[in-house]
Amino acid sequence: MLVGKFSSIVAAALGFALALLIAPMAAHASDQTALLGDATQTMRHMRHDKTFGPSRDLLRDAHAILIVPALVKGGFIFGGEGGDGVLLERHGRSWSQPAFYSLASGSFGLQIGLEKSELVMFIMSDRALRAVERSKFKFGAGAGLTVVTLGAAAEGATSGNLSGDIIVWASSVGAYGGLTLNGSVLAPKGDWNEDFYGRRVSVRDILSDQVHNGQADELRQAIASVF
Question: What is the dihedral of CA 107, 117, 121, 32, to 10 degrees?
Fold first, then answer.
């Protein structure tokens, strides 16, 4: 009887420990799937919404694209912004596997409000892509890159009158009334990438299609369909 009870306790303990190990992985997988779905919706918006302006031409010339479906900024006295995104590199008319990223910044000041932005970065130069690939990329004058942000005026813009290493399309709703990326930090989410592809992998390996996960196929097709 005692042996049986002890075995049951051990089995229960092992089951609980296994559940604790699996739960974070399942949470990551769920978050990744949701993010890929939201990014796919953003691409569908781009295909049909004129406010995206010259998105087709930008995609045709872009070296890569980074999609942040929901960048949220809010605070009372202390403020910050953050959101998750996916980076894909263009290979002709097709697109690489996605690398998961976070975009975040912090601020301090007298502020009250909440803003949510749908954001797409067209990465137009090789040096900009290499900068973004590094462990952390901080937007600002010190980055040595030209960043152009489009908002409501995107519809009237053309690819011919736009130039920059990174061209950002953003649609913002809320009390702040605009979007600035100065001081924001873009960084790979190494744990998400590892969980999604089943092993530790670099951003360069992901973008060069050294790994594959079929869950990203719908997003890749949605981006290709914008052409």
Answer: 100
Amino acid occupying residue 111: Q
- Compute the chain's Rg from CA coordinates: 20
Cα–Cα dist 220/223, whole Å: 5
Measured N-to-C along each axis, helices 190-197 and 2-48 cross at an angle, to the nearest 10 degrees, of 100
64 has which bridge partners?
89, 123
Cα distances (Å, whole numbers) of residue 157 to 149, 152, 203: 12, 10, 32
How many CA atoms does the CB half-sphere of 26 hold within 13 Å?
Answer: 6
Contact 120, 67 (CB under 8 A): yes
Mean pLDDT of 130-145: 82
For residue 116 the two structure tokens come to 């949510």
- Count Cβ atoms below 10 Å from residue 25 Cβ, excluding itself: 11
CB 135 within 8 A of CB 187: yes
| CA–CA separation, 59 and 90 (whole Å) | 8
Here the tokens at position 70 are 């929901």
Task: Let me know: does 220 contact 95? Beta carbons within 8 Å.
Answer: yes
Query: Between the ranges 17-26, 55-64, 176-185, where is the mean pLDDT highest?
Result: 55-64
Cα 152 from chain centroid?
A: 21
Cα 39-45-99 angle, rounded to 5 deg? 20
Instruction: For tokens 């008319």, name the residue.
Output: 93
